[in-house]
Amino acid sequence: MKSKAYVWAYILSAFWLLALLLYIPHSAMYLSISKLPWAFLIVNLVTHTPILLSLLLADWYTKKQKKQNENS
């Protein structure tokens, strides 16, 4: 039961990466960004920020649930 938040976080991450793989290579925005000298940083930021946020939220939720279970 503790790992339920992590499972949802990984499912969300998988859908995010799949959406990026299907959408980004065909968008005009990505083509304009890819010509910039430090474009890989922007692409990594767009790719990894939502994944890291979902994992941090899952960790926070799991710790919060554990603390509530210890108090009751």
SSE blueprint and pairings:
Blueprint: H1 4-23, H2 28-33, H3 39-71
Helix pairs in contact: 1-3
Transmembrane segments: 7-24, 36-58
Keywords: Membrane, Transmembrane, Transmembrane helix
Question: How would you portray this structure in words?
Answer:
The chain crosses the membrane at residues 7-24, 36-58. Keywords: Membrane, Transmembrane, Transmembrane helix. The chain is mainly alpha-helical and 72 residues long. It has one domain. Helix content is 82%, strand content 0%. It is built from three helices and no strands. It has helices spanning 4-23, 28-33, 39-71. Helix 1 (4-23) runs antiparallel to helix 3. The radius of gyration is 17 Å and the shape is elongated. The mean pLDDT is 88.
Distance between the termini: 17 Å
Cα-atom radius of gyration: 17 Å
Number of helices: 3
What's the mean pLDDT score? 88
Q: What is the percent of helical residues?
A: over 70%
Count all strands and give the number: 0
Oligomer: single chain
State the order of secondary-structure elements, H for helix, E for strand. Answer: HHH
Keywords:
72 residues; membrane; elongated; transmembrane; mainly alpha; single chain
Summarize the structure.
The protein has 72 residues and is mainly alpha-helical.
